[in-house]
């Protein structure tokens, strides 16, 4: 009896499956194979019927077929595809991200974004350049400048003697050099004033003022054999005795350096942060923003389609908002630090005054007044913010309405662009109909402005205090030796609305030449048909660090101004006056004519 190859159980004859485990028997497989072979032979057309019951043939040999080697899997291809797709998406987001995000932002969210991005001073304005330059200057502890000044006066209506004096003075060149080191630990300063002939570099008369140790020194090298010296404590005591003004010179200069640096930091960083915090408070109390699209705005002769948002802080919410802003200002560390430094400059009328404490007390008093009398501060605040297609701020309006008193204050600012044309308007209107307006139209090329402007003050539309107008051509700020200087032409004309006074014209022209500013300021007026022209020409340059050295050593010999005997000897020295007269004569100056009398020597 056959046995199951899998479990070893006995198998019945001709069994196809094991009754114990279900394994297929070999007999069934063999029969199936034989039948298949016979069937296949029969199909191939054998003339004989299949032979049943014969000895079965062994199965044909099995040959292994050749298989190609499997391809290497390039795992980095899908990774590269993913990276490329992400890079493309990142590029699209970088270029169009703001537009994509704006599609999912509400009008209020768009307004908040634009409001927060708007700086106190627009970055594309000339005022921003001036602010940045001023901030850099304030942060410098050491600085120095040198300028040469000369002037011309042309007038037909002046008396002959006055005209003669002015003609002589126009032949003189004035030189001024100033240097300061406001280092808190060791401050120094130096000032030199000199006179020379116009067109010549040599100086004929000079005066120096500088500090050395405990003294201030005044040197007149062409006239006095020794410098004059005065003790700093003597100056402080004299001021204290005469006016009650407490002044410590070294402490004052040291404090000025610290204050200058703090002012630079305040206007460069702290002020923007304070403005941002105040904006956050305003946004907190403002209602939902309403967006108006594509409305044409006109300033002067320039128009541009702009969108604008309008939001309102209700009169009921204003007292709470004002209290929160005042608390923010009171507790701001930068403001308190600045006030403390102002109070400790070494210059005060009363050393017992605590300016920082008084500032906090004043804020607390205002907060208490708002809390106790909120009805007096119920002011409706309306805000309109103009933006371009990119949601970038172009201007705005701030309207304050006292609904109970029916009084309104309006502050407007708007900048419109049409191709290469620009126009800007700033306007302030008070509750009583008085307004102040600045209006300008210009083109901008290479950061230089060319155009015109007008400044007017009016009462209910009538100009009552005169108007200022003028033009500018290629005007802007250019850098030389890390200093910004005004270049180009700027003109200012004052017109008297009453007609009693002829127009007054002021004109500035400047250019950078050899690392310094060469400029002139002219003043023209027509006095009863007689034109008068005054022109001041000057050059200005910043001194490099290599020249910021200070003459701060005490000389071997000097005249102490606190010594009355030494001072009287100086006054009796005839050689001093003789040297002065000789220098003035060389300059072409007649002291008798300048002072208005002839016998000056005798009177002296």
Could you name the ranges where pLDDT drops below 50 across 5 or more consecutive residues?
A: 28-55, 599-604
Share of residues in strands = 25-35%
Number of helices: 14
Radius of gyration of CA atoms, rounded to a whole number? 46 Å
Residue-averaged pLDDT: 79
Record field, number of beta strands: 22
- Portion of residues within helices: 25-40%
Q: Tell me the distance between the termini.
A: 161 Å
Main beta sheet? 20 strands, mixed
- Helices and strands: which structural class? alpha+beta
Shape: elongated
Structure, explained:
- The chain has 604 residues and is of the alpha+beta class.
- It has a domain at 1-63.
- Helices cover 34% and strands 35% of the residues.
- It is built from 14 helices and 22 strands.
- It has helices at residues 26-43, 76-103, 107-117, 126-139, 160-169, 232-243, 249-285, 318-331, 333-343, 355-372, 564-571, 574-587, 591-595, 600-603; strands spanning 142-155, 172-181, 188-197, 205-212, 215-219, 228-231, 246-247, 290-299, 302-313, 347-348, 379-387, 393-402, 407-418, 421-429, 434-445, 448-459, 462-480, 483-495, 504-513, 516-527, 530-542, 559-560.
- The strands form two sheets. It has a 20-stranded mixed β-sheet. Strands 7-10 form a two-stranded antiparallel sheet.
- Helix 7 (249-285) packs antiparallel against helix 8 (318-331).
- It is elongated, with a radius of gyration of 46 Å.
- The relative contact order is 0.10.
- Mean pLDDT is 79; it is low at 28-55 and 599-604.
